[in-house]
Amino acid sequence: MNGVYCNSLEGFRPISGGGRSLIFRCLFTDKSKLPLLPAPASCPTISLCLCSASTSAVHPVMADNKDVFDTREASLLVRELRSIFKSGRTKSYDWRISQLKGIERMMEEREKDIVEALHLDLSRPELESIIAEISGLKSASKKAMKELKKWMMSEKVKTSMTTYPSSAEIVPEPLGVVLIISTWNYPFLLSLDPVIGAIAAGNAVVLKPSEVAPATSSLLAKLLDEYLDNSAIRVIEGAVPEATALLEQKWDKILYTGSARVGRIVMAAAARHLTPVILELGGKCPAIVDSNVKLEVCARRIIAGKWAANCGQACISIDYIITTKIFASKLIDALKQALEESFGENPMESKDMSRIVNLFHFKRLVGLLDEDQVTDKIVLGGQRDEKLLKIAPTVLLDVPEDSQIMQEEIFGPLLPILTVETLEESFELINSRQKPLAAYLFTNDEQMKKKFVQNVSAGGMAINDAIIHVTVPGLPFGGVGESGMGAYHGKFSFDAFSHKKGVLYRGFEGDSSLRYPPYTQKKQTLMKALLNGNIIGIILALIKWYGK
Amino acid sequence: MEDLEGELGAMREYHDGGNTRDASWRRAQLRGLLLLLLENQAEIFSALQQDLGKHPAEAYRDEIGSAVKSINYALHHLKGWMSNKKAKLPAVALLTTAAIIPEPLGLVLIISSWNFPIGLSIESLIGVISAGNSVVLKPSELAPTCSSFLARKMPLYLDTKAVRVIEGGPAIGEQLLLQRWDKIFFTGSTRVGRIVMTAAAKHLTPVTLELGGKCPAIVDTLSSSWDKKAAVERILGAKFSACAGQACIGIDYILVEQKFCSALVELMRVNLKTMFGENPKQSRSIARIVNRHHFQRLKSLLDDPKIRGSVVHGGFMDEDDLFIEPTILVDPPLESAIMEDEIFGPLLPIITLNKIEDSIRFLKSRPKPLSIYAFTKDESLQRRILSETSSGSVVFNDALIQVRS
């Protein structure tokens, strides 16, 4: 039997389970929205689902006869990892370095396997995989190894008169056992980048890769087992049942990358155990394009930030563009030119663009294009091929603001351009929506840059480029509002998985009974002076005090 | 709660209009808080006396004085906090700059607690306002005089379009938690902390939860009598003179070596007399239990005859006055409620160990507390405590004072 099921944690019940066949049915109310979808031929499946989650991925699952990873298994796993952590094994500098070295070696030695898996899952061109995922991970592990000693050091802190004499410091310590739930679009990078942070901070780790990228998921399980300390670092493959079982446990931190809808579920599950979370979500990342730009460069960077970024399936890719009415046609011409240079006359045949990850998302994107009032706004592209799961780079001009394509995160190769009279209006347009993970501005006007940065809120920003800001390890990568909470990359990754413990050292000297009852008037005067830190006041009060 | 949504919508509009962004606005609000404290000290002392029986010295030390200090600290550092921080770029990035820019989150909810009702509310406000946010403060209804003081006075000193006080109990709290906030700052119990975070999850609202736990004081065998006196004074001060033990960072229980225990108890008895006199109830230097519910809760901790049998000092309770005298117990059973739940009251269990190093194993098997206190001059023990235990913070040879450093 062929079918697909939803990667959704809501309203999801198994109707028969165990053994070889697992059948699930979504209990969403609007079942009419999606019919039973045939799975891609490459992946044999045994599960069936009717569901209408608009942004959840639908994917195949592998049939096998290993035991289902349920709550009991998950609880045993956590207990085991906790005792490994308690033994102190993961805290040592040497252990952390050895694991980071293992990751570095893995990226060097198995580059071919990784590129192949990414190609299987996403039809990702080799160069894009190397640039976007492999080199990103290499530099993250290198940086962590280089800086780890410094990161692990305590930070001395100034103390005040109130606690004189004393010294204080902030001591970073690992949180314990952490859970990383990864996603499908940059499955290697978004799995291992947080793992690097968790290891650098000295934690035991469980990674659950996305089942929507099955080749990468199984390669990750194999490689981490081979190259890393598998007593403290584990990969649990699977889908909703496995994720649910994991989320029922008590973790010391959870980092989740994915949709806002599932982000809510993760946070609610974490709340039961007071587990702090980092949620890397998404949003509609806008790019404002001014007329004073160097157009050819600008167009190339827009392409890099849209179609060369996993075919627009990236949380930070440019979702839509805002430009002035008079500039729009120039911009469209420049894009057309640059697209031809990048992907040739017939982009559907180009090997340099990834495909849409699966049929569910393909149909979702086609649905966005085929909506009434939207189809006629296509000015470039629009072609699609269901067998290859490819959609040509498509640009649309002035779609209605209430159209579906402007309501949800596109996550695909469709680029709406909205036009305004003056560029300042774009700020209002952006601020009237949920805060995105990234916002971009292409301009040479310094004032415009200042106003943009001051008045638009987003997780991160880049001026005159797109997506590349996340490669700067000195900048925190994370969202705000609907686009997420918490951040990582560089030292922020280390901090994300550490507890910063405040420590105050006092001696027994210099004590006086003035803090304690019985509360005499003299004591109160001196106490007031000490709290104010006012030297004259303290001297006067001390004179009065000793003059008793 | 008429039109809460409308009220919050108006606050959001005011915030989105950029009215809370300028350093000058933030400074003005911080100065307003300062004046509120300095000009109303008598009324604050009276409110704290009314709600908690706090002595003015305690009230000044723990609430007014420390809040004033924090406001001045914020005013002094505000410019630095607000400035952009340059971020390092890899060498290959020519002609590029990068910066991290702090911006306000938006509309923040502060849910405050009852034990330091003025102090903790103001401390939370300082951070939220310094960051340029609009804020709704819900003070605890269990300290009603203080709550009404804040509700009456804050509008006189702060910008009411951006800073509001909403009074009420759990019903109001529930309604507030249904709304969308850009951040929630909660001080209170772990039970309610879970409720707050679960409600926040619906809107993907980040939260800061200041909870509690059983904060232990590890007391090493000290030899010098000066050291012993200082340590005992600090322990007793941290347990009994800060809201009668009703403090999240108060010392909950003590761990000590068997051979030092009786000397410790003797010293405590002597110092308790110095601090609180022969009749502690009349000294008026010990705060009261906040209400009947908590009084009953504390009373029932001593109900079991096995627990009663472990009391070595104190035990007197007066329900009409909501007064419990400083009480010391030695080795109550570890599975008893007094050793499982956060005590939050003036009952001090002492647990004896064979060696003081056993305290580390003892702590590792328990949930992480907000603070660990260790009275010891032994540097290797200090190092072990630091690296082998985990807690919000650690203080060596003192207690409570870390929040004022």
TrEMBL record, chain A:
<dbReference type="GO" id="GO:0005737">
    <property type="term" value="C:cytoplasm"/>
</dbReference>
<dbReference type="InterPro" id="IPR016163">
    <property type="entry name" value="Ald_DH_C"/>
</dbReference>
<dbReference type="InterPro" id="IPR015590">
    <property type="entry name" value="Aldehyde_DH_dom"/>
</dbReference>
<protein>
    <recommendedName>
        <fullName>Aldehyde dehydrogenase</fullName>
    </recommendedName>
</protein>
<dbReference type="InterPro" id="IPR016161">
    <property type="entry name" value="Ald_DH/histidinol_DH"/>
</dbReference>
<comment type="similarity">
    <text>Belongs to the aldehyde dehydrogenase family.</text>
</comment>
<feature type="active site">
    <location>
        <position position="280"/>
    </location>
</feature>
<feature type="active site">
    <location>
        <position position="315"/>
    </location>
</feature>
<feature type="domain" description="Aldehyde dehydrogenase">
    <location>
        <begin position="79"/>
        <end position="501"/>
    </location>
</feature>
<dbReference type="GO" id="GO:0009737">
    <property type="term" value="P:response to abscisic acid"/>
</dbReference>
<dbReference type="GO" id="GO:0004029">
    <property type="term" value="F:aldehyde dehydrogenase (NAD+) activity"/>
</dbReference>
<dbReference type="Pfam" id="PF00171">
    <property type="entry name" value="Aldedh"/>
</dbReference>
<keyword id="KW-0560">Oxidoreductase</keyword>
<dbReference type="GO" id="GO:0009414">
    <property type="term" value="P:response to water deprivation"/>
</dbReference>
<keyword id="KW-0520">NAD</keyword>
<dbReference type="InterPro" id="IPR012394">
    <property type="entry name" value="Aldehyde_DH_NAD(P)"/>
</dbReference>
<dbReference type="InterPro" id="IPR016162">
    <property type="entry name" value="Ald_DH_N"/>
</dbReference>
<dbReference type="GO" id="GO:0006081">
    <property type="term" value="P:aldehyde metabolic process"/>
</dbReference>
From TrEMBL, chain B:
<protein>
    <recommendedName>
        <fullName>Aldehyde dehydrogenase</fullName>
    </recommendedName>
</protein>
<dbReference type="GO" id="GO:0004029">
    <property type="term" value="F:aldehyde dehydrogenase (NAD+) activity"/>
</dbReference>
<dbReference type="InterPro" id="IPR016162">
    <property type="entry name" value="Ald_DH_N"/>
</dbReference>
<comment type="similarity">
    <text>Belongs to the aldehyde dehydrogenase family.</text>
</comment>
<dbReference type="InterPro" id="IPR012394">
    <property type="entry name" value="Aldehyde_DH_NAD(P)"/>
</dbReference>
<keyword id="KW-0520">NAD</keyword>
<dbReference type="GO" id="GO:0005737">
    <property type="term" value="C:cytoplasm"/>
</dbReference>
<dbReference type="GO" id="GO:0009737">
    <property type="term" value="P:response to abscisic acid"/>
</dbReference>
<feature type="active site">
    <location>
        <position position="248"/>
    </location>
</feature>
<keyword id="KW-0560">Oxidoreductase</keyword>
<dbReference type="InterPro" id="IPR016163">
    <property type="entry name" value="Ald_DH_C"/>
</dbReference>
<dbReference type="InterPro" id="IPR015590">
    <property type="entry name" value="Aldehyde_DH_dom"/>
</dbReference>
<dbReference type="GO" id="GO:0006081">
    <property type="term" value="P:aldehyde metabolic process"/>
</dbReference>
<dbReference type="Pfam" id="PF00171">
    <property type="entry name" value="Aldedh"/>
</dbReference>
<feature type="domain" description="Aldehyde dehydrogenase">
    <location>
        <begin position="18"/>
        <end position="400"/>
    </location>
</feature>
<dbReference type="GO" id="GO:0009414">
    <property type="term" value="P:response to water deprivation"/>
</dbReference>
<feature type="active site">
    <location>
        <position position="210"/>
    </location>
</feature>
<dbReference type="InterPro" id="IPR016161">
    <property type="entry name" value="Ald_DH/histidinol_DH"/>
</dbReference>
